[in-house]
């Protein structure tokens, strides 16, 4: 009962208010989307890791206080912000949002929220990597609160299927959304610390997680030879880590995915059948990804249009 009540509370807390629309800036800032797209394309020319960073940043934003740009705020004084909280290592490319915001402030000052910039940039990052496109509903407001301690609300890479389900359903997201959006792991990089649990002292019986394909596990151990290894070491989550494709699902079926939470998608009949479906049809994956991104990015939460995405007004 308490759990039910608290999930209802979280749900209403995250989704109250703001209604979004695709043509939100049509009159007030008609070039908003092309300005954001340019910032993403320009960044990607010099920094192949920017698209992955933007897709992940939007996910983190939406899972904490709704998609309100809280992930973009800098720590200040005594307040340590989300971006400086524990799972912060792979959050980067904040400069892309700054560049877009700067251009938007000169085209239409005070109009486009940072939360919207991030939602649009995540879509553009997907497209620039070869993934699907979709209309991004807009009209989000920016939040004024960002706390490092709240990053503990993010799902952890050690989560099993029931923990994942709980984390997602608290935000009104389904198991289909979970499987489709986990496909974001077709892009980007993971540090050893995010999967060390599987390759050193897994449990009292096994040193290495037996659900890892053995030669893949050996590769991970070569890169990450000890539990507390070099902070920078890690692996790409998919060999085609700058191309948005359905390889991730094929890797799940081969037991060659880095996180326990990725492998966990095989542990319920429903999620397992979706993994097989997306592994055999990139079209089905692309459609589902676009649909679920719209759903996740419609969890709103803020109050203002920030002038500087790193600082509350
Ligand atoms: C299902 C729950 C999820 C968990 C537990 C999870 C966990 C993680 C972890 C641990 C990393 C690596 C961090 C590091 O070591 O540097 C990572 C990277 C990443 N995640 Fe997820 N993630 C989840 C869902 C998502 C979703 C929904 C998306 C987007 C749709 C996403 C997109 C990414 C991307 C693109 C990266 C690579 C970032 C980069 O290279 O900069 N993840 N994720
Ligand atoms: C990440 O968080 C840790 C604290 O958990 C902090 O010491 C570190 O400076 C942060 N790193 C970045 C890049 O913000
Ligand atoms: C998942 O993990 C939680 C917390 O460790 C545990 O209570 C639960 O039994 C696990 N569920 C499954 C299906 O393994
Ligand atoms: C260790 O993990 C394996 C595979 O997940 C499991 O079957 C086994 O029960 C676990 N052993 C202990 C002692 O937890």
TrEMBL record:
<feature type="disulfide bond">
    <location>
        <begin position="192"/>
        <end position="224"/>
    </location>
</feature>
<keyword id="KW-0560">Oxidoreductase</keyword>
<comment type="similarity">
    <text>Belongs to the peroxidase family. Classical plant (class III) peroxidase subfamily.</text>
</comment>
<feature type="binding site">
    <location>
        <position position="66"/>
    </location>
    <ligand>
        <name>Ca(2+) 1</name>
    </ligand>
</feature>
<dbReference type="GO" id="GO:0006979">
    <property type="term" value="P:response to oxidative stress"/>
</dbReference>
<protein>
    <recommendedName>
        <fullName>Peroxidase</fullName>
        <ecNumber>1.11.1.7</ecNumber>
    </recommendedName>
</protein>
<feature type="site" description="Transition state stabilizer">
    <location>
        <position position="56"/>
    </location>
</feature>
<feature type="disulfide bond">
    <location>
        <begin position="114"/>
        <end position="309"/>
    </location>
</feature>
<dbReference type="GO" id="GO:0020037">
    <property type="term" value="F:heme binding"/>
</dbReference>
<dbReference type="InterPro" id="IPR019793">
    <property type="entry name" value="Peroxidases_heam-ligand_BS"/>
</dbReference>
<keyword id="KW-0964">Secreted</keyword>
<dbReference type="GO" id="GO:0140825">
    <property type="term" value="F:lactoperoxidase activity"/>
</dbReference>
<feature type="binding site">
    <location>
        <position position="70"/>
    </location>
    <ligand>
        <name>Ca(2+) 1</name>
    </ligand>
</feature>
<keyword id="KW-0408">Iron</keyword>
<keyword id="KW-0479">Metal-binding</keyword>
<keyword id="KW-0732">Signal</keyword>
<comment type="function">
    <text>Removal of H(2)O(2), oxidation of toxic reductants, biosynthesis and degradation of lignin, suberization, auxin catabolism, response to environmental stresses such as wounding, pathogen attack and oxidative stress. These functions might be dependent on each isozyme/isoform in each plant tissue.</text>
</comment>
<dbReference type="InterPro" id="IPR010255">
    <property type="entry name" value="Haem_peroxidase_sf"/>
</dbReference>
<keyword id="KW-0106">Calcium</keyword>
<dbReference type="GO" id="GO:0005576">
    <property type="term" value="C:extracellular region"/>
</dbReference>
<keyword id="KW-0575">Peroxidase</keyword>
<keyword id="KW-0376">Hydrogen peroxide</keyword>
<feature type="binding site">
    <location>
        <position position="186"/>
    </location>
    <ligand>
        <name>Ca(2+) 2</name>
    </ligand>
</feature>
<dbReference type="Pfam" id="PF00141">
    <property type="entry name" value="peroxidase"/>
</dbReference>
<feature type="active site" description="Proton acceptor">
    <location>
        <position position="60"/>
    </location>
</feature>
<dbReference type="InterPro" id="IPR002016">
    <property type="entry name" value="Haem_peroxidase"/>
</dbReference>
<feature type="disulfide bond">
    <location>
        <begin position="62"/>
        <end position="67"/>
    </location>
</feature>
<dbReference type="InterPro" id="IPR033905">
    <property type="entry name" value="Secretory_peroxidase"/>
</dbReference>
<dbReference type="InterPro" id="IPR000823">
    <property type="entry name" value="Peroxidase_pln"/>
</dbReference>
<feature type="domain" description="Plant heme peroxidase family profile">
    <location>
        <begin position="19"/>
        <end position="313"/>
    </location>
</feature>
<dbReference type="GO" id="GO:0042744">
    <property type="term" value="P:hydrogen peroxide catabolic process"/>
</dbReference>
<feature type="binding site" description="axial binding residue">
    <location>
        <position position="185"/>
    </location>
    <ligand>
        <name>heme b</name>
    </ligand>
</feature>
<keyword id="KW-0325">Glycoprotein</keyword>
<feature type="binding site">
    <location>
        <position position="61"/>
    </location>
    <ligand>
        <name>Ca(2+) 1</name>
    </ligand>
</feature>
<feature type="disulfide bond">
    <location>
        <begin position="29"/>
        <end position="108"/>
    </location>
</feature>
<feature type="binding site">
    <location>
        <position position="245"/>
    </location>
    <ligand>
        <name>Ca(2+) 2</name>
    </ligand>
</feature>
<feature type="signal peptide">
    <location>
        <begin position="1"/>
        <end position="19"/>
    </location>
</feature>
<feature type="binding site">
    <location>
        <position position="238"/>
    </location>
    <ligand>
        <name>Ca(2+) 2</name>
    </ligand>
</feature>
<feature type="binding site">
    <location>
        <position position="82"/>
    </location>
    <ligand>
        <name>Ca(2+) 1</name>
    </ligand>
</feature>
<keyword id="KW-0349">Heme</keyword>
<comment type="similarity">
    <text>Belongs to the peroxidase family. Ascorbate peroxidase subfamily.</text>
</comment>
<feature type="binding site">
    <location>
        <position position="155"/>
    </location>
    <ligand>
        <name>substrate</name>
    </ligand>
</feature>
């Amino acid at each position: 009962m308490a759990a039910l009540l608290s999930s209802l509370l979280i749900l209403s807390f995250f989704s109250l208010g703001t209604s979004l629309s695709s043509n939100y800036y049509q009159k007030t800032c008609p070039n908003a989307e092309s300005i954001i797209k340019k910032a993403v394309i320009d960044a990607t020319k010099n920094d192949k890791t920017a698209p992955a960073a933007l897709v992940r940043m939007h996910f983190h934003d939406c899972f904490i206080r709704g998609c309100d740009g809280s992930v973009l705020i800098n720590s200040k004084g005594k307040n340590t912000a989300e971006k400086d909280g524990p799972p912060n290592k792979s959050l980067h490319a904040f400069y892309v949002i700054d560049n877009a915001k700067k251009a938007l402030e000169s085209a239409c000052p005070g109009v486009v929220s940072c939360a919207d910039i991030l939602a649009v940039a995540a879509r553009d990052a997907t497209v620039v990597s070869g993934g699907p496109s979709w209309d991004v509903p807009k009209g989000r407001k920016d939040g004024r609160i960002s706390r490092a301690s709240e990053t503990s609300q993010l799902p952890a890479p050690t989560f099993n299927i029931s923990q994942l389900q709980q984390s997602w359903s608290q935000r009104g997201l389904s198991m289909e959304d979970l499987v489709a959006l986990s496909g974001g792991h077709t892009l980007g990089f993971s540090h050893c610390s995010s999967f060390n649990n599987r390759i050193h002292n897994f449990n009292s019986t096994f040193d290495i997680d037996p659900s890892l394909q053995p030669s893949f596990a050996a590769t991970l151990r070569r890169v990450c030879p000890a539990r507390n290894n070099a902070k920078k070491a890690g692996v790409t989550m998919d060999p085609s880590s700058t191309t948005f494709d359905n390889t991730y699902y094929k890797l799940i079926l081969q037991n060659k995915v880095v996180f326990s939470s990725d492998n966990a998608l095989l542990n319920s009949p429903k999620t397992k059948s979706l993994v097989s479906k997306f592994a055999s049809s990139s079209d089905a994956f692309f459609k589902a990804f676009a649909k679920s991104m719209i759903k996740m990015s419609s969890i709103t939460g803020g109050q203002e249009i920030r002038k500087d995405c790193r600082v509350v007004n």
